[in-house]
Design goal:
Helix content: 25-40%
Order of helices and strands: HEHEHEHEHEEHEHEHEHEEEEHEHE
Low-confidence stretches: none
Strand content: 15-25%
Distance between the termini: 55 Å
Mean pLDDT: 95
Structural class: alpha/beta
Number of domains: 2
Number of helices: 11
Largest sheet: 9 strands, mixed
Shape: globular
């Protein structure tokens, strides 16, 4: 039996009413299903709501209360989840994505299903252990550096010495909740003490590489200086503080204005969320030239709107971009406008760039640009690697500032790296 499936892009806390309504519907469906052998759930893991710091911990704990201790509960979580002993106690098996950018969620779902099947057949009796790495940040798994080897070592250890699954829970670094931060999860078939040792071993290994594994950011001014350089391939600028995967609105105009001020005309800004501007462009039609107010509308961190002379180049209703396999990401209505030579792709739904066809589908030719600015954090890195001369992850102004020291954390448990130098006291002296 399948219950409710719901999805929303990251933003602020969910309202209490919305969370409790969805939660109670799922719990009601579980009760109506009668006796069950197992529960499999695909959850993000970092959802918060008014009055709830740990929505997933709340719902899975309530499920456990309903079904009792013998029903198997297996979970797949995003590696940017938050987790503590609440979920460990409520579930039998938890598996996180191993990759950032997230390209292995299907494989991890199959892993969860396989482990649940083996539990039901009494082939395994999993024990889970969580090691708190006391660290926060962004740790891409395809970036040159130690994370590639670390992830390979996790995968290689699985199936040996009783180890069933290993997951590094990176955590969501902009979250100001007590259970935030990176943690290492070990699932073993055997004794709890073995799970504790394995989690500590891999957790300490990650702790040792945390600085080298962290995504480096380029200052905004340095990125614009690099954008002035004409190369043999386009420069990609990732506007990291306004990418929606972090909860930002996706509608700031800081990069667009900086490119205009620098006199750069052979460029593109993709995508920018502005339902009102898109609606106006659809009303006036392709070829229209108008004075248009772009961006800066959603909330204070959106910054000022930008008033420009724009030409409407392309319109598309109810559009999308491709993703993994045959998956499609809906992006709403689209308008592409030209502003002093810069092509700006506007959408009515908040989105990141997931595939190159976000541009090609809407008439933007990447290869001919001097610079392309995208509202992404890291998921585009491998897409552009063969066709860009360089990719800069830029510390732009916006909601999701990657300067952790500048963020007003109030509830985050301290000590935690990098706000504190060596929380576990394991660094070489």
């Amino acid at each position: 039996m399948q219950s409710l499936f719901a999805f929303a892009n990251p933003a602020g806390p969910t309202t209490r009413h919305a969370f409790e309504t969805m939660r109670d519907r799922i719990l009601s469906d579980l009760k109506a299903a009668g006796p069950v052998d197992a529960i499999l759930m695909y959850l993000h893991g970092a959802m918060i709501a008014d009055g709830y710091d740990d929505c997933e911990g709340d719902i899975v704990s309530r499920m456990r209360d309903i079904v009792g201790p013998d029903v198997r509960i297996a979970l797949e979580l995003d590696l940017h989840a938050h987790i503590d002993q609440t979920l460990i106690k409520a579930a039998d098996v938890i598996v996180f994505y191993k990759t950032y950018p997230h390209i292995d969620h299907n494989e991890r779902a199959e892993e969860v299903f396989d482990l649940a099947k083996r539990m039901l057949a009494d082939e395994i009796a999993p024990k889970m252990a969580l090691f708190d790495c006391r660290s926060m940040g962004l740790f891409p798994t395809t970036m040159e550096g130690p994370m590639i080897e670390f992830c390979a070592d996790m995968a290689a250890a699985e199936g040996k010495g009783g180890i069933l699954s290993l997951s590094l829970n990176h955590g969501f670094p902009w979250a100001d909740v007590p259970l935030a931060g990176a943690k290492m999860l070990a699932v073993v078939d055997g004794q709890q003490a073995h799970a504790d040792r394995v989690a500590a071993e891999f957790g300490e290994r990650f702790y040792a590489i945390r600085a080298a594994a962290t995504l480096p950011f380029t200052p905004f001014e340095a990125a614009i200086a690099e954008a002035r350089v004409v190369g043999d391939k386009p420069l990609v600028i990732a506007d990291t503080a306004d990418q929606i995967g972090s909860g930002a609105p996706g509608d700031t105009t800081y990069v667009l204005k900086a490119l205009l001020d620098a006199g750069i005309s052979n460029a593109a800004v993709v995508p920018l969320w502005d339902p009102l501007a898109v609606k106006i462009c659809h009303q006036v039609g392709v070829g229209a030239k108008l004075r248009l107010r772009i961006g800066g509308k959603y909330e204070p961190h959106s910054g000022p709107a930008l008033d420009v002379d724009a030409e409407v180049l392309h319109l598309a209703p109810n559009s999308f971009q491709d993703h993994l396999g045959d998956e499609k990401i809906m992006i709403g209505d689209v308008a592409v406008v030209r502003v002093a030579g810069i092509e700006v792709l506007l959408t009515t739904l908040r989105t990141n760039l997931y595939s190159l066809d976000l541009m090609s589908r809407h008439g933007i030719v990447f290869e001919g640009k001097q610079v392309v600015a995208i509202k992404n954090l890291y998921k585009q890195k491998d897409l552009f690697a063969p066709i860009a001369r360089k990719q800069l992850f830029v510390a732009t102004p916006g909601t999701s500032n990657p300067d952790w020291d500048a963020l007003p954390f109030k509830r985050l448990q301290r000590p935690i790296w990098p706000l504190d130098a060596d929380p576990l006291g394991l660094d070489p002296q």
